[in-house]
Structure formats: structure tokens, C-alpha cells
Design goal:
mainly alpha; Rhopdopsin 7-helix transmembrane proteins; two-stranded antiparallel sheet; 53% helix; elongated
Length: 186
């Protein structure tokens, strides 16, 4: 969409409108996905997510349909002067980027990240392979995913594998192991 608009702006003949048509077809495909597909998925999560999606989606699609108008008035038809074109695009860019970002942040202020499938941890939490507290190494030693010791101290001191099969850990090099004997190429 953006590339076809750029190429169309650089073409000196009326063929530039062919590139405009390609850009509009791409825009319609994107708009279809935002308006119908994304809306359906947002509604399946909960009403707060759906509400935020509607606000941000309507804002985005509205602005994205103004961009082709700006292109048609400036690069396409040379109806407005270059300085007016710069102001037109500048206002659109400010509305489409920072204002959209503010709307998105404002809309997510009351949405629990877990609702979206996100786990945001505190900086002092040590993650494990599932991204939960407990993790690779704890103060007590290597732990399983359920935060129980992976092996006894005797097994750790005897040279036996201290990692139960299926669990992961890292060594001091940062290489992740699974408790199985294997070699890895670096």
C-alpha cells in the first residue's frame, strides 16, 4: 500500500492512478480484516477489549482512508501546494501515531494483561521455562516447573544428572539444557 503510493508518486504519467488502485485494493483488504476479523476476535475476549478495539480500530481506519485523499490531492492530482501537502501529511501522521498510541494506552488501563494472554512479571522475579516465578535457578538450586527441587543434594553431589528429564535449566554459559545428554553446536 505504501510502496505503491510511493511508486505512483514518482511516475510522471497518468499511470500513477493504476498504482493508486493497487494501494486502495490493499487498503480495502486491511480494512476488512480490521473491521470484521479483528472485531470478532476482540469480542471473543471480553467487552473491555472489544470497546478498546472499536475505539482504536475506528480511529485507525478513519485516518487510513484520509491518506489516499491526501495522496490524490497532492501527488496524484497536484491540487494542493507542497507546503500544504506537508502540513496535511504531518497532521495525519500525528493523529495516526502518537494520538493512536495514547488511545491504545488509555483503552488498556483497565484491561488485565492476563486477559490478553500476557504475563508481565516484576523485575525481581526469576522466570522459568513457562515464564512463571520459580524458574531456572532459585536460591535452593534447580527447580522443576512446579517449583519443587529437581533432584536431591546427593544426586547433585554424586555427579548424576540433577535435572529431571523434561525440565530445563541453564549453565553458567547461558546455554539451555533439557536434562538429556546431547551436544549442541554454537
Amino acid at each position: 500500500m505504501v510502496v505503491t503510493g510511493l511508486v505512483g508518486a514518482l511516475v510522471a504519467s497518468s499511470y500513477k492512478w493504476g498504482y493508486y488502485v493497487f494501494a486502495m485494493v490493499a487498503l480495502l483488504f486491511i480494512a476488512w480484516n480490521v473491521v470484521f476479523v479483528g472485531y470478532k476476535h476482540a469480542g471473543a475476549i471480553n467487552t473491555q477489549v472489544k470497546r478498546t478495539y472499536i475505539i482504536c480500530g475506528v480511529w485507525t481506519i478513519f485516518l487510513w482512508f484520509i491518506y489516499p485523499i491526501a495522496w490524490g490531492l497532492s501527488e496524484g492530482g497536484n491540487v494542493i501546494a507542497p507546503d500544504s501537502e506537508a502540513v496535511f501529511y504531518g497532521v495525519l501522521d500525528i493523529l495516526a501515531k502518537p494520538v493512536f498510541g495514547a488511545l491504545l494506552l488509555w483503552g488498556h488501563r483497565n484491561i488485565d494483561p492476563a486477559t490478553l494472554g500476557l504475563h508481565i512479571r516484576d523485575y525481581d522475579d526469576v522466570p522459568n521455562t513457562n515464564g512463571e516465578k520459580g524458574g531456572f535457578h532459585s536460591a535452593q538450586g534447580v527447580t522443576n516447573n512446579d517449583n519443587t527441587p529437581a533432584a536431591t543434594a546427593d544426586a547433585q553431589n554424586s555427579g548424576a544428572s540433577a535435572i529431571a528429564p523434561g525440565n530445563t535449566t541453564t549453565d553458567n554459559t547461558g546455554i539451555v539444557g533439557t536434562g538429556h545428554n546431547h551436544t549442541s553446536a554454537v
